[in-house]
Amino acid sequence: MSHKGKLIVFEGIDGVGKSTQCKLLEEYLRNRNHTVRQLKEPSDGQYGREIRKLASQGQRLDPEKEYQLFILDRKENVKNNILPSLTRGEMIILDRYYFSTIAYQGALGLSETRVREENESFAPRPDIVIILELPVDEALKRVTQSRGTKADSFETRDYLIRVKSIFDSFKDNNIIRVDASQSSQEVAREIMDQLSKRVLSNL
Prior knowledge:
The longest helix has 25 residues. Strands 2-3-1-4-5 form a five-stranded parallel beta sheet, with helices on both faces. The chain is α/β, with parallel strands linked by helices and 203 residues long. It is globular, with a radius of gyration of 16 Å. It has one domain: Rossmann fold (3-Layer(aba) Sandwich), CATH 3.40.50. The protein has eight helices and five strands; from the N terminus they run βαβααβααβααβα.
């Protein structure tokens, strides 16, 4: 599926600083006169709101039912937001995508291969996937400090260790791995340097 725009995805376990880096990258690209759209998953659509509500209440559905909610949300996001923006030639910065679904649902026992194949059958492949890497204990510490509350049901230590091991196993050639233990400015500099070489050089 060819399109004029670029899809840049941020991934990693909770607490690695994805939201901060999405904002910094958006500023960087806008300052260089790119048309940028920032999106997130779960989205603001009906299914995304339901996923976030369940997570904030500490409720976990049966893994298969939860997975189907993520699929419905992503299909809606692809149709209403991602594909139209790519067709218009915009740069999309996306906070989480199907790599998160492979990792988080895979850690609950779903087949990673099946999750990937089902998602890649309808979801555009990202131009770049930036995986921010941080040890689980450090990530959980950041989550607790930033919110002043305990972690939610997606953020228990043993679960995140399994999730991180799946993120660590991805070998796609569009992946950039960045050490998120650096300062946010150092992380941003490394991301922008990589993007300049791999995505922005041909724009």
